[in-house]
Amino acid sequence: MASTYSAPTVSPSAEQETLKALTFQRLHPKAYLERFLAENVRPDGREPTEWRDVSVNVGSISTADGSALVRLGDTTVVCGVKAEIAEPELDSPEDGFLVPNLDLPAICSPKFRPGPPSDEAQVLSDRLNETLVSTGVISTRSLCIESRKAVWVLYVDATCINYDGNALDATLVAMIAALQNTRLPKATFDEDTGRVLCTRKEMIPLQISRFPLSMSFGVFDGTHILTDPTSFEEPLLDTTFTVTVDENGGVISVVQLGLASQDVLRKCIATTKSRYRQLAKQVYASS
């Protein structure tokens, strides 16, 4: 005798309450968040200072020289590294190039529209470039094949495929993990032909010298510090902080948008250093 399955029924009253909550959230988002924080909880169930889970998977893009997929809660970023050979700059004859870029396509969130890169994507790409290039995550000298003749160019392209806030932190993890996963063919410069010869029989990993992580915070209503804000919380914040530190606990950068006391800033820096020790082994060891 065939058995039948019937889905659990939801009472009309429960449906009405859910609809009321969603309507209230959309029409009065600030009051909605205030009611949760009054109970020391956030809409996604976290406490104010609780972080979302992070997972890292590497090597999933077979056509890239290195790749990583990172999930930070519901924010998902995929990053691929593509290596090309180019001539160096005349004033830097032994320096290769590292070119990071983040794309926030319309498919990842309703807040982004089709067309040219959004202002947010460009700002985040600039900040990622500053972190990766200016701090020497990879020595550009290590990308030299032949001085004045040929160097590697690494295009580090990240795409957010699902956006639920805090794309910067997720993307930085994805980029570092993808660079760790990158292997370049052994390259030599032939003086007779003036060409670079590559062999994939010997694949060489990149020389990564620093492992930064960034942690983002938001201040809501002047009193509540929220770690790792979601896309719902981000537009409601009075002030945002992003603190970037390295493996030695050194502060690489602090970006603050809005006003806050020095005590709040110091607390965010201390929290970032503590979080680094917990997270770095997990996200970078898996690469």
From TrEMBL:
Keywords, ordered alphabetically: Cytoplasm, Exosome, Nucleus, RNA-binding, rRNA processing
GO MF annotation list: mRNA 3'-UTR AU-rich region binding
SUPFAM superfamilies the record matches: Ribonuclease PH domain 2-like (SSF55666), Ribosomal protein S5 domain 2-like (SSF54211)
GO BP terms, alphabetized: exonucleolytic trimming to generate mature 3'-end of 5.8S rRNA from tricistronic rRNA transcript (SSU-rRNA, 5.8S rRNA, LSU-rRNA); nuclear mRNA surveillance; nuclear polyadenylation-dependent rRNA catabolic process; rRNA catabolic process; TRAMP-dependent tRNA surveillance pathway; U1 snRNA 3'-end processing; U4 snRNA 3'-end processing; U5 snRNA 3'-end processing
Family annotation (CDD domains): RNase_PH_RRP43
Cell compartment(s), UniProt: Cytoplasm; Nucleus, Nucleolus
Domain Exoribonuclease phosphorolytic as annotated: residue spans: 50-185, 212-273
Domain of life: Eukaryota
Pfam families reported in the protein's UniProt record: RNase_PH, RNase_PH_C
GO cellular component: cytoplasmic exosome (RNase complex); nuclear exosome (RNase complex); nucleolus
PANTHER family (UniProt xref): EXOSOME COMPLEX COMPONENT RRP43, EXOSOME COMPLEX EXONUCLEASE RIBOSOMAL RNA PROCESSING PROTEIN
Family, as annotated: Belongs to the RNase PH family.
Protein name: Ribosomal RNA-processing protein 43
